[in-house]
Design goal:
The protein is mainly alpha-helical. It has 11 helices and no strands. The protein is about 75% helix and about 0% strand.
C-alpha cells in the first residue's frame, strides 16, 4: 500500500480539498475528476472516494473551506472592536482580495455556472455565503452612516453591491482573464477610490488614503505576529 494512503481522515480530507483548489486554479472546474485528484496527490481513486463518495460531497467540502476562510476574516475584525467602521471596510476588502490571491480558485468557483447548475446544493451554499457576507457588510456601512463618516443619503445595499462588484472584478481579472495585474496594489487603489466616493468629508481623498494606510498596517502587524 502507498504510505500516502495512511493519512488520518481529517488530514486526508484537507489535502483533497487543497488539491482540488489548486487544480481548479490551473485547469478550471470542468476538468476536475476523482482520478485527476488522486493522481495529483499520489493515491488511488478509491482512497479519495472513501472520504468523498460523490463529486457533490467533494465540492461542498471545498465550499466549507472557503467559507471558513471568509469567516476567519470577520473573526479577526471582531478582535478589535474599537477600530473605525471605514477601517473595517478596508480590512474586509483587502482580506477578501488576499484570499483570492491565495486561492485563485475562489473566483472560478463563484463564476462557474457549470457547478451551480449541476449541483443545486452548491447554489444554495453560494446564496447562504453571499447573504451572510452582504448582511455583515451592510451592518458596517450602517454603522459608518451612524458615525457620520459617509454621505447621509448613501444606500447601504447599493454601497455593498458596489463593494462586492469591485472584489469580483479584481478576481475575474486575476484568476479568470489572467491579466498581468499586481493584485494587491490594484486592490489598494480600488478600495481607496471606493472610500473616497462614499466619504462625507470635503477632504475625502486624503482620508481615504489614510484609511488604506491604516488597513495595510493592520495586515503587517498580523504577519509579524
Amino acid at each position: 500500500m502507498n504510505t500516502n494512503d495512511r493519512l488520518p481522515t481529517g488530514s486526508r480530507k484537507r489535502q483533497i480539498v487543497e488539491t482540488v483548489l489548486e487544480l481548479v486554479a490551473t485547469q478550471g472546474t470542468e476538468a476536475i475528476s476523482f482520478q485527476l485528484v488522486a493522481d495529483a496527490i499520489g493515491v488511488t481513486q478509491p482512497a479519495v472516494l472513501r472520504h468523498f463518495p460523490t463529486k457533490e460531497a467533494m465540492w461542498l467540502a471545498v465550499m466549507d473551506c472557503l467559507e471558513e476562510q471568509l469567516v476567519a476574516i470577520y473573526t479577526a475584525l471582531d478582535e478589535d472592536p474599537g477600530q473605525s467602521s471605514l477601517v473595517v471596510l478596508g480590512r474586509m476588502f483587502l482580506g477578501h482580495v488576499r484570499l483570492i490571491e491565495r486561492y485563485p480558485a475562489l473566483a472560478k468557483l463563484v463564476f462557474s455556472d457549470h457547478l451551480r447548475l449541476q449541483y443545486p446544493s452548491l447554489q444554495a451554499r453560494f446564496s447562504r455565503i453571499h447573504k451572510a457576507y452582504s448582511a455583515r457588510l451592510r451592518a458596517v456601512l450602517d454603522r459608518a452612516k451612524a458615525e457620520g463618516v459617509v454621505r447621509g443619503p448613501l444606500a447601504s445595499k447599493d454601497a455593498a453591491t458596489m463593494f462586492l462588484s469591485l472584489i469580483q472584478g479584481l478576481g475575474f481579472q486575476f484568476a479568470i482573464a489572467r491579466l498581468p495585474i499586481a493584485l494587491i496594489p490594484e486592490a489598494e487603489r480600488a478600495i481607496t477610490m471606493y472610500l473616497q466616493a462614499i466619504t462625507a468629508a470635503a477632504d475625502a481623498a486624503e482620508r481615504a488614503h489614510a484609511i488604506v494606510d491604516a488597513t495595510k498596517r493592520g495586515f503587517s502587524r498580523r504577519c509579524v505576529a
